[in-house]
Amino acid sequence: MKYIARILKTPNLIALWDFKEEEGQARKAQGVSDFPLKEQNGTLPRVNEGPLSGYSAQFGNKAFLSLPHAETGKLNIYGKSQGVTVMAWVKWTGEQTGFVGGMWNEYQDGGKRQYGLFVSLPYYNGRNQVCGHISWNGKPTPPFPYSIDYSASHQAVPANEWSCVAFTYDGKYIRSFFNGEFKERAPELIDHTKGFEGYPEGITHSKNPYYFPDGMGNNGSDFTVGAVLLKAGMGNFFKGQIGGLAVFDRSLSAEEIKKLSKN
Question: What's the rounded Cα separation, in Å, for the pair 199 and 135?
């Protein structure tokens, strides 16, 4: 419990879920409110294993957790120079694209994207990596079909072992961390960007940190854990265990991330 206390004492914590509740119960946070995340599309078994409370929630049957937008309160973090940090303790199965947590709705009203933590976003150079996604307008990044604006860690996330995955945004740069460590990526050609208007040769830039000075929009998404709304319905299902999730309304320093990442 000293580990949880260390997280709770960190300034600007909005919510920390430790997933100690049994299957069928709302998962409640400690922080400025209890933000009860309710099961949708089925139930999520509790596993007697986890780095924070000793428990975790088992994802993989297309069930997920949700808090309606009207109840998000201080989780609705936005602004031109507003910071955010999302940290999670996960045991991922290694399959593609898993949404961990945040306010990220890709479809409704053209998109209500805001901020979100993913494991593996392969389309724009984030395969098997920690990805932190930020959006200003909630919609795809012009002229591309999807939102391109995410950082991706240099390190890969291993399958079937506990890891701390996190990202920060300070209003200018998105940074991805794996087990408390930030590793810069050299500029690289971003896949699937060639041939678009204004980008005949594609885009070349660093994925970590990812430069995004636009800010974070107030776009109306629910807060979800384990899945996001896509055109075909809920998708990007996380597979594996989530044993902790923390949201802060500022960009934590690299030293703070390192300190909080290890028990």
Answer: 20
77: Cα separation from own chain's centroid: 13
- Give the DSSP letter string of 116-146: EEEEEEGGGTEEEEEEEEE-SSSS--TTSSS
β-strand partners of 57: 46, 242
C-alpha 99/C-alpha 15 separation (Å) is: 18
pTM (2 decimals)?
0.97
pLDDT tens across 163-209, in order? 999 999 999 999 999 999 999 999 999 999 999 999 999 999 999 99
Give the H or E element holding residue 256. helix 254-261
Query: Maximum CA pair distance of the chain?
Result: 54
Give the C-alpha separation, 117 to 85, whole Å: 9
Q: Which residues of 108-120 are buried (b: 16+ CB within 10 A; e: fewer)?
A: eeebbbbbbbbbb
How many residues in the chain? 263
